[in-house]
Specification:
alpha/beta, 13 helices
Length: about 300
Amino acid sequence: MLAVLKNARRDERPWPEIAFALLELERIAAVDENGRPWIQRAEVESGYAANQLRRMTKASLFRDHLIQFEPALAEKLLSRPFSHIETISRIWRLDESEARSLIEGRYPNATFRDLYAAYERVSKSSHGIAPIMAGKKAAKEFRDKAISLFKNDQSLLFGGEITFDVEIVRPIVPFRYANPDCYVVCRENNKVTRIEAMDSFALYDGTHTEVALRKMIATATESTFFSRFWIVVPAGESATVVLSECDHLGLLNVGVILMIDGALKWQRVPSIKVKPSPDRRDRWSEYALSRLRRRQTVAEGENAGDE
């Protein structure tokens, strides 16, 4: 794969080959042998800027999606230049029906100017959502779904018969060193004896692999304050990064749960006996623990922590 990237810009290598090579490298591992993210290594090897390379991978993922699920549309699109495919992919994310119409030629689509005009129209229309707002809305929907499914599956956390009370709660105020979506609080005789955490990563395919890596770097610290730290992430390229970095960083107490077709698959399940390393669970102050004793459940505190 590195051979494909080597001097790719100078040699005018086709962009789909460059994108495929980078995505394959990121699929195998998040970083190279020297610990650098592959996107940075690809910059040096290829002569393209990171932003250009990431645009290629996003367009490539869209192209691959059409080939797999919409072969008739893909056939009409594959001969188009990169700028056309990239612009149509951006329109697709905002208004799929509009993108289909453009691919099929029901709207003017011969030039980049035609396509960009359509993108601007969709972005400003009532049917299109600004990308940042769309991202926030998608993240909230994913988080809410993840919490609901996690709560339904909570019997899988400890298995068998347990001798302590278990409650899934939303943070009332953020913990000083971590801000997961919810806590798993275990009590005996109304005393908190164990705290686990769950955080949802709304990261899809290969377009968010750099974000996934940054989140795992943060997780390496946050997870040390909990007995176990659970991550719910959509199955795909970003999930591969999350799983790979758990091993690479030695995060023995981090569990990974994949969301597939609206259901959870418990992919990486640490033993209940595992301990965080380093173990910072003693850094919970009495004040922070007292907040957990208010027993605000997910259902009762649906909007807690959203402000």
